[in-house]
Structure prediction request, 376 residues.
Amino acid sequence: MRKLVAWVLALVALTTGVVRAQTIAGNWQGTLEAGRPLRVVVKIATGDAGSLSAVMYSIDQGGQPLAASAVSLQALTFKFSVPGIGASYEGKLSADGASMTGTFTQGGTPLPLNLVRATGDAAWAIPAPPAAMRPMPADARPVFEVASIKPSNPDAQGKLFTIRGRQVLTINTTVNDLITFAYGLHPRQIAGGPAWLETEKFDVTGQPDIEGVPSQPQLRLLVERLLADRFKLTFHREKKELSVYAIVVGNKGPTLTKSAAAANSLPSLLFRGLGVLPAANASMADLAMVMQQAVLDRPVVDQTGLAGRFDFTLTWTPDETQFQSMGVRIPPRAADAPGPPGLFTAIQEQLGLKFESTKAAVDVIVVDQIQRPSPN
Prediction:
């Protein structure tokens, strides 16, 4: 009899969880006091077996969709994180399911954010983003209508590729950095060319000839054309067997959250410090690209077989072999030092993936001709 009662109670609990997950779906809104009032909208949807997804909008800051990850409802506690901005939310759902009292945390600062369910005319309209913030047409093949290339400040540290408004910027980047970005390569996949390709650094500021935010392939195309037009780069490709890291699925399977971002949304993989990588709307190819261009000392290939895009945060303690391409020198870690695990352990524990050291035939660019950039 006791076993039967326990089984019935477990069934009731499971059913209640699914019902609550279905009940919480909809539009929720509230005002965040962050120096000034900011209206926030959270759209919650249910998937198979009561799974939850959410997208957050700060409608007084442009209304860009921010994909949430780790969305859950346990009993009456609702949680999600927003890896793209390093934020999280935890709220307590009211008994009638019409409101929740909670806390929004970003950068370690907690702020109260209470949400109410909104329907009909009571729902706040999400503004359309300005033209400069909308995605560039998917079939567009942009070029820089204006581009400035200047020597970098010799005292500058690190390097940066970013977008500000309509401008595309690179800071403290070598020509090898530009080539690896444009063609999705590791520095070991570049051969030939003069020594200054690795030593002389440039700041690039360019404005595309088409309005809108370029996608990752469009950003690469912009830099590719800049290299051809201003550096007169010509090259040929070869296949070469190199030592690589292959990203594969771990023994227990992946623990990744499918992204709820719109299909045309850009991926976001922006380090929040060495060894802290929040990712939103990112594919496994995007992860491999970031790892080979910023972190690891050899090319990285995606052999997971996982399609689609994901939200996750990967946190680890770097070692002295990592981030060298960013001009960072990390001292050796003491064996008993506190902190997160190393990268190879962290990616298994946190994402259910593994790095395997192997050899693979990869594309290599052989530089035939290049020159210092033409005047602005």
In short: The first strand starts at residue 26 and ends at 33.
